[in-house]
Amino acid sequence: QVQLVESGGGLVQAGDSLRLSCAASGRTSSRDLMAWLRQAPGKEREFVAAINWRGSSTYYADSVKGRFTISTDNAKNTVYLQMNSLNPSDTAVYYCALGTNMLRYDYWGQGTQVTVSS
Questions:
Q1: Largest Cα span, the chain
Q2: Res 74 pLDDT > 90
Q3: Beta strand 92-101 with 104-108: parallel, antiparallel or unpaired?
Q4: Nearest Cα to 69, choosing from 55, 51, 81?
Q5: Whole-angstrom Cα distance, residue 90 to residue 103?
Q6: Which residues, 6 or more positions from 66, have their beta carbon under 8 angstroms from its beta carbon?
Q7: To the nearest whole number, what is the mean pLDDT of the chain?
Q8: Is 92 a residue whose pLDDT tops 90?
Q9: Phi, psi of 96 (to 5 degrees)
Q10: Burial, 77: exposed, middle or buried (Cβ in 10 Å; 0-12, 13-18, 19+)?
Q11: What is the DSSP string of the chain?
Q12: pLDDT tens for residues 8-28?
């Protein structure tokens, strides 16, 4: 079994930065891809960024390229999402997920709220 716990969300102003963390425990080696997805009110969940555990491959949604950076700390079994130049459209509940590829995630965290005010 795998547990994922997100932290780092909050209320910020447009232009500010936040760093989200996702601490993983359990059989994390059973899946190779860690990702962040988000869901805004009234919208479908959407992909934000993903990384393999080695950190050698990263993927980003076009809407966050150049502003968000995903990274891993294997010693801590933790994945981070550094979010810069936040704007109100980034407001959402952010989830971390563990899976085999970007179309299939088998484990999910509980989510952390990010709210960006204008």
A1: 41
A2: no
A3: antiparallel
A4: 81
A5: 22
A6: none
A7: 95
A8: yes
A9: -100, 150
A10: middle
A11: -EEEEEE--EEEETT--EEEEEEEEESGGG--EEEEEEE-TTS--EEEEEEETTS--EEE-TTTTTTEEEEEEGGGTEEEEEE-S--GGG-EEEEEEEEEETTEEEEE---EEEEEE-
A12: 999 999 999 999 999 999 887
Amino acid (1-letter code) at residue 104: R
Confidence band of 111 (pLDDT split at 50, 70, 90): very high
pLDDT at 31 over 90: no
Query: What is the identity of the amino acid at 58?
Result: T
> In the predicted model, what is the mean pLDDT of residues 60-72?
97
Residue pair 73/81 in contact (Cβ under 8 Å)? The answer is: no
- How many CA atoms does the CB half-sphere of 41 hold within 13 Å? 5
The phi-psi region of residue 64 (left if phi > 0; otherwise alpha if psi is between -120 and 50; otherwise beta) is: alpha
Short-list 76, 72, 68, 15, CA closest to 38: 68
Which residue bears the tokens 């869901």?
39
pLDDT at 88: 97
